[in-house]
Amino acid sequence: HQQMYLVHRYALVHHSLAAAGTGVHQRL
Question: pTM of the entire structure?
Answer without folding.
Answer: 0.53
